[in-house]
Amino acid sequence: MKPWYSLYWFSPELWDQFRFTNPLALYLIPGIGLLFALRYYVHRGSQQRLNMSLGATTNRKRTAGLFGNLIRIEQTVISSLRYLLPISIFIAMGMLLIALARPQLVQTHREEQSEGIDIMLAIDVSESMTENDMPPTRLATARRVAQTFINGRKNDRIGLVIFAGEAFSLCPLTTDYALLKQYLSQLDAKMIQTSGTAIGDALARCINRMRDPAMVVQDSAQLKKQRSKVVILLSDGDNTAGNLDPVTAARLAKAFGIRIYTIAVGRTVESRTAASTIDEGILKTIADIGKGSFFRAADAGRLRAVFAQIDRLEKAPVRTIVYEDVQDYYRVYIYWGISFLLLALFLKNTIAGNVLED
């Protein structure tokens, strides 16, 4: 740190960084200057002056020129020194007022803490997901939108389950978003050879990844104490395969405090690879049981909007902790004020003060 007598304490850069606890004290400084100016004008007419002759006219002519100019400059300097006493008092009082304003340098550190939530993505990779009503295909569009969704999450653990006629846990809950997006980019309709749509088994895989056997939810108060758990299930068909009924799986998810969002993707089409109708009933039912929501996405734009809405709904609370490192520097200006006050006392009570007054 600079010594107190350094001019560094009056640099504009430093003053821009100061925070004053009592800034009103600074407004008194111009008021003191006005009082000194008022005192000067009031007492200017009452001061006694003695005009002194500096010699005969001939002597004045002889001292004209360079020496005359030097004498006039010397007289001006000596005459100006009479203001040294009031200036010292003004500066001393100004420094004490600055100290009273209490200048501080504050360094602020912010720390954001969030426990995050657990999210399992369950994505249908059956043959019907290769339909091109959501160009280039339903699966490609879902894959791209899911990656964008992951980019917007922070401090959340996200896992991935894929299903067709069977369900497999492709990625456990993780905060390694790069690894998760790599798994998403590799999704293909040929990853599971068994045909069908096993929605119940997919839910069971998600629950198995997130469940805590010691915490089966009994009431809403206990649910609030748990880390939030969410399943986002994306499919384009009805439950046609698997060993577990989707309704039973949804009830099991509810018991573990897991909320379920379901998304039906694609339009109703007629083809050899896709069913002629998309049954939304089971997706709506498990979303209602799981205390979540059902969404219909007939195109890529709507699918992005659905994920954006889920992103807004499922946000973990963020606690912001602010640390402030406060350093006071009022002592520096007290030292300056005392120094100028001592100078004023010296000028007032010694012969130097009498010389300046004369």
From TrEMBL:
Coiled-coil intervals, chain numbering: none
InterPro entries on file: UPF0353/GerABKA_families (IPR050768), VWF_A (IPR002035), vWFA_dom_sf (IPR036465)
Domain of life: Bacteria
Domain (VWFA): residue spans on this chain: 118-310
Keywords carried by this UniProt record: Cell membrane, Membrane, Transmembrane, Transmembrane helix
Transmembrane intervals: 20-42, 81-101, 329-347
Name recorded for this polypeptide: VWA domain-containing protein
Source organism: Spirosoma terrae
